[in-house]
């Protein structure tokens, strides 16, 4: 921040949106703090904006579309006084009592308390062809890109709930869906596994990894190379769409080590609280949760962060 530039001052700033950020804003707004949410320039609302039907968020027995759920949370936060800026925080200075946030637009913000709720991003396979065919067959969002592969063979990589959900969703479009998982058992919940197993368009390649993605300039991705983790044997199967659902990486790099993190980048918090290693800085959501990573747990953490921040601001 230059000597001539004065930062916009706030009691509390929430970095990131999604269930954690919006829930924190709802609680802080109702407490009278008029929180500022720096929601992100490109993907406000977090990963749920790229999710189809959400069936396990309490209060919606018929399910709700991910983007709609995020729109409702945003509207609720704004109803109680939250202000939203669609920008990205690029670096921070947490060394003083007042925390400084630098953004991509060049605007600086100063806050007495900060809640980091930036979530996580998709983990990549790191195999030949992944980068080359990104956007031309390789995707990390079934709801974004599924319809491009109507009546074409599709591969989904992963073994958790997200992979099962994506395979089920993509079966509406593809001529076939092959789910590739490196183990013989799934991490996904029983109901999601059973749903995939009962879908006649989904087949399984277990104890196998994708070792390469092949294609050409004209067609994009055309096939994937599978390696048997037991025998080491390789073979190829057709795939015009390759959807990667192998987990997340916490979006904490922009903090530059300003708070203590685990080896995987997840922000460490004090016990069941949201307190980080820096007084006045709190963390909520997938960027502070390497285990559960659910919308409802992120929302719960957002609530805790708001209450922790409120206690900090009033000096408890």
UniProtKB/TrEMBL annotation:
Protein name, UniProt field: Thioredoxin reductase
SUPFAM superfamilies found in the cross-reference section: FAD/NAD(P)-binding domain
Gene: trxB
Source species of the chain: Bifidobacterium primatium
Record's catalysed reaction(s): [thioredoxin]-dithiol + NADP(+) = [thioredoxin]-disulfide + NADPH + H(+)
Lineage of producing organism: Bacteria, Bacillati, Actinomycetota, Actinomycetes, Bifidobacteriales
Details of cofactor binding: Binds 1 FAD per subunit.
PANTHER family per UniProt: THIOREDOXIN REDUCTASE 1-RELATED-RELATED
GO CC, any one term: cytoplasm
Subunit structure as annotated in this protein's UniProt entry: Homodimer.
